[in-house]
């Protein structure tokens, strides 16, 4: 079968000597085209390097002018938005402050009710008691039993501190005498 293919090629090229020439011309044209594409790419690269700096600078100038135009247009809008935002934030702060005030008032009222249920004297009760003690001291002085002048009441500390617990000294075991 291999012989059959070889003979078919020989007979085709023998019949068409022009076909070999066409193939060679086509190969030569493809090589020249590839060379031209390569040279065009190298030329484009060279031009891009030479003109790239100029192009970059012109793009920067164009960008600056567009930025200035955008800032002019947006400038007024930014101030308007800023004013609206500040207004809304102020309103929100006011509402939050009112909410905290109401919450604080509710908390104070509930604490006061709990203290009354536990029969803890209020500030007014203590003031009335102090006034009453002072008036009784005054009456005692008049009767002749000179009571010592009243000293200002000091607040008790929040929680008394406990001294750290001391470790007990380890008990030494008596050495055992071994029975021999």
What class, by secondary structure content? mainly alpha
Query: What's the total count of β strands?
Result: 0
Shape: rod-shaped
Overall mean confidence score, pLDDT:
76
Main sheet makeup: none
Percentage of residues in helical conformation:
over 70%
Alpha-carbon distance between the termini? 115 Å
Strand content: under 5%
**Tally of individual helices:** 3
Radius of gyration, CA atoms, in whole angstroms: 54 Å
Written as H for each helix and E for each strand, in order along the chain, the element string is HHH
Low-confidence parts, pLDDT < 50 over ≥5 residues? Answer: none
How is this structure best described in words?
By secondary structure, the chain is mainly α. The chain has a domain at 21-143. Helices cover 76% and strands 0% of the residues. Residues 1-26, 141-180 are annotated as: Disordered. Residues 147-162 have a biased composition (Low complexity). It comes from Pseudoxanthomonas gei.
């Amino acid at each position: 079968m291999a012989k059959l293919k070889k003979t078919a090629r020989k007979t085709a090229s023998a019949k068409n000597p022009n076909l070999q020439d066409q193939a060679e011309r086509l190969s030569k044209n493809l090589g020249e085209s590839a060379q031209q594409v390569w040279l065009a790419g190298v030329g484009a690269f060279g031009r891009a390097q030479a003109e790239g700096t100029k192009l970059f600078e012109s793009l920067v100038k164009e960008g600056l002018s567009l930025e200035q135009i955008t800032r002019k247009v947006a400038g007024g809008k930014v101030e308007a938005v800023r004013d609206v935002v500040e207004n809304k934030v102020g309103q929100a702060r006011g509402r939050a402050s009112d909410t905290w005030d109401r919450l604080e008032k509710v908390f104070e009222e509930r604490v006061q009710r709990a203290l009354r249920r536990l029969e803890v004297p209020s500030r007014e009760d203590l003031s009335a008691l102090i006034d009453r003690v002072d008036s009784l001291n005054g009456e005692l002085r008049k009767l002749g039993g000179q009571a010592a002048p009243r000293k200002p009441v000091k607040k008790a500390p929040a929680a008394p501190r406990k001294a750290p617990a001391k470790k007990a000294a380890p008990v030494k075991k008596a050495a055992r005498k071994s029975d021999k």
